[in-house]
């Protein structure tokens, strides 16, 4: 069952990337699309809560609200860091930083939650890192002559890792007092307020068109489900297995979608990266 949740989470993440690429190609406002996406995700999460008989504002512990709000703020902060990093460092370097941030939740899983460290996990994670590097670098060459804003790459690595780690923290520390949907409804509500206020301040909302709304609607549901599925996967598999497998599946599936839908050309490095990724998945799921 854990593998099914991993595949579902990765599939949702690929859909998100696909629709955001559509927004980029159509030259739509990413900020508007994300604002609508957060609105849809909040409504969907609240609907799931209501179907479970949970009120709009349940009496959860104060620390739950503080934690969820902090994660919501991190979502938007990380988005802006990604945007700045892409401008200064290029897409390739930024994606490498985001994907390699899986090391943070893996280290937390080993050190804080005492997950077993095995040779298979170590070998599998090393294969994942090698595969990610080959797949991402081959698709978007690093702008080596301009990778001077290392602070942005470090910030992207750190915040992406903290956000991923928050899902494991929720599952371990708060899973007995709240459901995944309520946690994500708070996270996305805070992200909605932050992104919406920014879009309003920049004058983007005033330019919102039908395409922005439709793309936001298409991104919202997968965005919510991607988080819910990965949290549920933790009930069946160690986080030190879930994070690497999800990351590599997203990149491999994204590469295949690019090949089939966007007519991208598969390079030699990508083929090697896919092979390494498959080997990594087999090793990790076999531990």
Write up this protein.
This protein is mostly helical. The protein is built from 11 helices and no strands. It has one domain. It is globular. The two termini are 16 Å apart.
Largest sheet: none
What is the tally of beta strands? Answer: 0
- Strand residue percentage: under 5%
Would you tell me the overall average pLDDT?
84
Helix content: over 70%
Order of helices and strands: HHHHHHHHHHH
Class per helix and strand makeup: mainly alpha
Count of runs of 4 or more consecutive helical residues: 11
* Model regions low in confidence, pLDDT < 50 over at least 5 residues: 141-148
Principal-axis shape: globular
N- to C-terminal distance: 16 Å
List the helices and strands and how they pair.
Elements (H helix, E strand, L loop, with lengths): L1 H24 L4 H22 L10 H28 L1 H10 L2 H9 L7 H21 L10 H25 L5 H22 L8 H24 L5 H22 L7 H18 L2
Helix pairs in contact: 1-9, 1-10, 2-8, 2-9, 3-4, 3-7, 3-8, 4-6, 4-7, 5-7, 5-10, 6-10, 6-11, 7-9, 8-9, 10-11
């Amino acid at each position: 069952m854990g593998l099914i949740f991993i595949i579902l989470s990765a599939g949702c993440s690929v859909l998100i990337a696909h629709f955001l690429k559509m927004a980029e190609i159509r030259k739509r406002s990413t900020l508007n699309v994300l604002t609508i996406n957060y609105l849809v995700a909040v409504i969907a999460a609240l609907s799931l809560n209501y179907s479970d008989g949970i009120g709009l504002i349940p009496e959860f512990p104060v620390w739950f609200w503080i934690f969820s709000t902090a994660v919501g703020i991190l979502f938007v902060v990380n988005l802006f860091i990604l945007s700045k990093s892409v401008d200064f460092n290029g897409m390739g370097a930024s994606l490498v930083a985001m994907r390699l941030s899986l090391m943070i939740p893996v280290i937390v899983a080993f050190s804080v939650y005492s997950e077993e460290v095995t040779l298979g996990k170590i070998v599998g994670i090393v294969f994942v890192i090698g595969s990610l590097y080959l797949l991402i670098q081959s698709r978007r060459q690093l702008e080596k002559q301009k990778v001077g804003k290392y602070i942005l790459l470090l910030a992207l690595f750190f915040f992406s890792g903290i956000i991923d780690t928050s899902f494991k923290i929720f599952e371990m520390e708060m899973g007995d007092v709240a459901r995944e949907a309520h946690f994500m409804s708070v996270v996305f509500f805070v992200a909605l307020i932050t992104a919406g206020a920014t879009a309003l301040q920049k004058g983007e909302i005033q330019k919102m068109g039908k395409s922005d709304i439709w793309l936001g609607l298409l991104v919202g549901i997968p965005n919510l489900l991607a988080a819910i599925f990965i949290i549920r996967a933790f009930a069946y598999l160690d986080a030190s297995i879930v994070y690497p497998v999800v990351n590599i599946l997203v990149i491999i599936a994204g590469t295949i979608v690019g090949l089939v839908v966007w007519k991208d050309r598969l390079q030699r490095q990508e083929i090697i990266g896919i092979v390494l990724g498959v080997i990594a998945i087999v090793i990790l799921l076999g531990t």
